[in-house]
Specification:
Blueprint lengths: L6 H8 L3 E6 L11 E8 L2 H13 L4 E4 L5 E3 L4 E8 L4 E4 L5 E5 L4 H10 L2 E2 L11 H7 L2 E2 L2 E2 H4 E8 L2 E6 L19 E9 L1 E2 L2 H18 L4 E2 L12 H7 L6 E2 L2 E3 L7 E3 L5 H19 L8 E3 L3
Parallel strand pairs: 2-5, 3-5, 4-19
Antiparallel strand pairs: 1-2, 6-7, 7-13, 8-14, 9-10, 11-12, 11-13, 15-18, 16-17, 17-18
Helix pairs in contact: 3-6
């Protein structure tokens, strides 16, 4: 593995925060992925902004990684810097129009439970969402008829123009997408304000428990990336994959879950190449048998 990264320059910029040749599998929900040439951890929104600004100045390629869900990192890994987002500050405003400000590295499911513990409703749906607030803002994450577009008030972004406050309307949200995900500009989510409602701890916690039980009943345990494919209009990717006869199909130790066909499970030491082969087989089979083109919900990252 060779790298063209300016390692001495990066060492000078980030000091001991810079780690080299770091295996990425432990940082992903699927536990799959090869090494990054370098990794820098950011522990606050300010540090995240400073880190990314410096990488832009150095014209150094980077990938931002939060909870590591909804991504498949290649076996060859990433030629560049991985910025590991651990910015996790949270502050609640319990006024007449309650809200919460959460930095982008906050795990969304944990935030929903913290809101519940304060008797604040509105994020119950997020208790079933893997990943971070930043990832949710970027990709309009959602579950159980709720989504980020319906909860976000505003977010602070780092763009090439500096730090900017974006109201939800500017995100141009669609199903599991946004102007950020369509990559029309260089940007990083730093924090988000999310709207809440006054309730009681018991009521909110009961709703979260209900959603969690529903999720356990319909989604498989084990290491996965989350939903592999977007649901086509008026249908469900899992139903189509099952109808194509693919439930339980394996390549290597990667398996299309027998519980829910839109989840691919890592049964241990799974190669990213095997998951990708399973993706290709699924797309080809569903297209041939049912005439539907499945679009990936996960992102393929790294050197393929």
């Amino acid at each position: 593995m060779s790298t063209n990264l300016p390692i001495p320059t990066l060492r000078a910029a980030f000091g001991e925060r810079l780690q080299e040749n770091v295996l990425l599998a432990p940082y992903t929900s699927a536990r799959i992925g090869g090494p990054a040439d370098a990794l820098v951890t950011a522990t606050s929104a300010d540090e995240l902004a400073e880190t990314v600004s410096r990488l832009w100045e150095l014209d150094t390629p980077y990938v931002l990684l939060g909870g590591g869900s909804n991504v498949l990192i290649s076996d060859k890994g990433i030629r560049g810097v991985v910025v590991l987002n651990k910015a996790k500050d949270v502050s609640f405003d319990k006024g007449s129009r309650p809200k919460v400000r959460a930095e982008a590295g906050v795990v969304f499911a944990n935030l929903a439970r913290r809101a519940a513990s304060q008797g604040l409703a509105g994020l119950e749906w997020a208790a079933a969402v893997p990943g971070t607030v930043g990832g949710a803002v970027y990709g309009n994450a959602g579950a159980f008829d709720g989504d980020t577009a319906g909860s976000l008030i505003q977010a602070e972004l780092l763009t090439e123009s500096g730090r900017e406050i974006w109201p939800v309307e500017k995100m141009d949200y669609g199903y599991r997408t946004s102007v950020l995900k369509r990559q029309t500009l260089k940007s990083v989510v730093l924090w988000a304000d999310l709207s809440l409602k006054h309730s009681s701890k018991e009521t909110v916690s009961a709703k979260i428990s209900e959603f969690s039980e529903r999720r356990k009943a319909t989604q498989p345990p084990g290491a996965s990336m989350g939903s592999m494919f977007k649901n086509p209009p008026g249908d469900f990717a899992g139903r189509l994959i099952e109808a194509a006869g693919l439930k339980g199909t394996r390549i290597g130790t990667a398996e299309i879950s027998p519980v829910h066909a839109n989840f691919f499970i890592n049964h241990g030491q799974t190669k990213a190449d095997d998951v990708r082969a399973l993706v290709n087989l699924t797309q080809k089979t569903v297209a041939e048998k049912l005439g539907v083109t499945l679009e990936l919900e996960i992102e393929l990252i790294g050197e393929w």
